[in-house]
Design brief:
Layout: E1 4-12, E2 20-28, E3 32-36, H1 43-51, E4 58-63, E5 66-67, H2 73-79, E6 80-83, H3 95-100, H4 116-128, H5 144-157, E7 162-166, H6 174-190, E8 194-198, H7 202-208, E9 211-216, E10 219-224, H8 226-229, H9 232-239, E11 243-247, E12 254-258, H10 261-265, E13 278-280, E14 284-297, E15 304-315, H11 325-335, E16 343-348, E17 356-362, E18 365-373, E19 378-379, E20 396-403, E21 405-406, H12 408-428, E22 442-443, E23 447-452, E24 458-459, H13 467-496
Parallel strand pairs: 3-8, 3-9, 6-7, 7-8, 15-16, 20-23, 21-24
Antiparallel strand pairs: 1-2, 1-4, 4-5, 9-10, 11-12, 13-14, 14-15, 14-23, 17-18, 18-20, 19-22
Helix pairs in contact: 4-5, 12-13
């Protein structure tokens, strides 16, 4: 069992001038190490040195404290398998014959007899790589992606303890990329395999590798966990391109996104959200913008964080009941000419005639606030020991459109500030929880939306005492108060008419 691969102060290249310079790192069993770096940084050269294909001028490469030069070629083949980036096909072997070449190091005797173990191994690795159906075809008749999977099967047929991969997802579509690395991740843990792989895709490397090694001009910039290596400023400096770092939505790893040049071309474009963009009827309230806005919301459709340019608050009857309200809402939007993927959709049982909206301006910052509010199902969220009841469509929907560029922190603080102010309004208006008789803090299914143009003034904070926070406080307070009062007046008017 191989426990460690150690590279110690290795230098070398194709000429007197070294391509890799004083490289040192270790890989332990059960680990996957990703090698990153721009073209020409020495990634492939380093991998060739580790595999024994290319000599190095200085340093040492050891497998379990034994230098590479001390292993015979056949011994090394039992320990190390290599999947190169490009593979020549001089002979028209079948797929199975090609994969079978990986068993050479395990065959014994002068005549290299084929064993049951060899056959079982070949069939297993072809199943794992999805090449069984190709086994009788000529390797030369395959597509680039199919060949890549065949050569991976050949490498796996060696049953190596160390697997070296040079951009293994070359020519593979997304499904096979995922399947390949899911498989490799599983093998590293279950079989104590060591995997060292070159990556051009930073996100794939961050998703699957335990550690990353970043090279620049043949030298190590950093070798650490993905979260430490994939720092935004560092990657921008090494790759000389604009990127942004963000967390993966499902697993705790970093992901990098490219920032295209055309984004710079739009910096001069002014987007102003105000009263001119709202269209209100008894059926729905719509704000439609010319450019997508970065949005954080709790909408029925378009919840979470995304970019949207249609904002719909739809009236539904108090008796509305649907087993799949998200699907029903998406269908409603499509029928009315809105693309669900570009739309935040909310529902309310409030009469939309009671909507309150206004533009608020403070020097270089402005917001447009839209509120629909009814308090028939108001609750005190601080009372947790209460009877559970069926949810009804949300009755306080708060929209805040910011004409400016918000930080992630400002988005969250905007929601906090708006919520604090909403609670204060309910207290001032003496809105009670009908079950407990205490002051309500909201309704059973309130919704909120913060949408920013991400152009113009950069706004880092939105707490209560900041410029934006004060605008939100004023806007939410005034519009929520007005919307509640309008709703009450209408209800009182309807009651008096009977």
């Amino acid at each position: 069992m191989v426990n460690m691969l150690r590279i110690q102060h290795v230098s070398g290249g194709y000429s007197d001038k070294p391509i890799v310079k004083d490289i040192s790192f270790e890989v332990r069993k059960g680990e996957m190490l990703g090698i990153l770096g721009p073209n020409g940084s020495g990634k492939t050269t380093l991998l060739k040195m580790i595999s024994g294909i290319m000599p190095f001028s200085k340093g040492a490469i050891l497998i379990d404290n034994k230098e590479l030069s001390e292993y015979s070629p056949k011994e090394l083949a039992k320990l190390v398998a290599v999947l190169p980036q490009h593979t020549a096909d001089p002979f028209s072997y079948t797929v199975k014959e090609t994969v079978s070449l990986g068993r050479y190091a395990h065959q014994r005797g002068w005549f290299h007899s084929w064993s049951t173990e060899d056959e079982e191994t070949i069939l297993r690795v072809m199943e794992q790589t999805g090449t069984v159906s190709l086994q009788h075809r000529s390797i030369q008749d395959l597509s680039g992606g199919e060949r890549q999977r065949v050569y991976l099967a050949q490498a796996l047929a060696q049953e190596p303890r160390i697997l070296l991969l040079d951009e293994p997802t070359n020519h593979l579509d997304l499904s096979y990329q995922k399947e390949l690395f899911d498989l490799l991740k599983k093998w590293t843990k279950e079989c104590d395999l060591m995997v060292v792989s070159i990556f051009h895709d930073l996100n794939l490397a961050g998703l699957y590798c335990d550690r990353l090694l970043l090279l620049q001009e043949g030298e190590i910039v950093i070798e650490d966990t993905p979260n430490e290596v994939l720092k935004q400023e560092r990657i921008q400096n090494v790759y000389h391109t604009k990127i942004a770092k963000q967390p993966h939505p499902k697993v705790p790893v970093p992901q990098m996104v490219l920032l295209p040049e055309w984004e710079d071309d739009q910096e001069g474009i002014k987007v102003q959200i105000d009263q001119s963009m709202i269209h209100a009827t008894s059926e729905r309230i719509v704000v439609k913008t010319t450019h997508p806005l970065k949005t954080m919301s709790s909408g029925v459709v378009g919840s979470g964080v995304g970019w949207y340019q249609n904002f719909v608050n739809r009236h539904v009857d108090k008796s509305y009941n649907c087993s799949d309200h998200k699907k029903e809402m998406a269908t409603y939007l499509e029928k009315n000419g809105f693309v669900p993927g570009e739309t935040v959709g909310m529902m309310t049982a409030v009469k939309l005639e009671d909507v309150s909206y206004k533009l608020y301006v403070d020097r270089n910052v402005s917001i447009f606030v839209v509120v629909t509010a009814g308090v028939g199902n108001a609750i005190d969220a601080s009372i947790i020991d209460r009877e559970i009841f069926d949810h009804t469509p949300g009755t306080i929907n708060t929209w805040i459109f910011v004409n400016g560029e918000l930080s992630e922190e400002a988005f969250i603080q905007s929601i906090m500030t708006a919520t604090e102010v909403k609670v204060k309004v309910l207290q001032n208006e003496e809105v009670l929880d009908v079950t407990t008789g205490t002051f309500a803090t909201g309704t059973s299914t309130d919704s909120i939306l913060i949408a920013a143009t991400q152009k113009g003034t950069s706004i880092e904070y939105a707490g209560s005492f900041t410029q934006l926070g004060r605008l939100i406080s004023r806007g939410v307070y005034e519009c929520t108060t007005e919307a509640i009062r309008k709703s009450r007046i209408r209800k009182e008017s309807m009651s008096s008419s009977f």
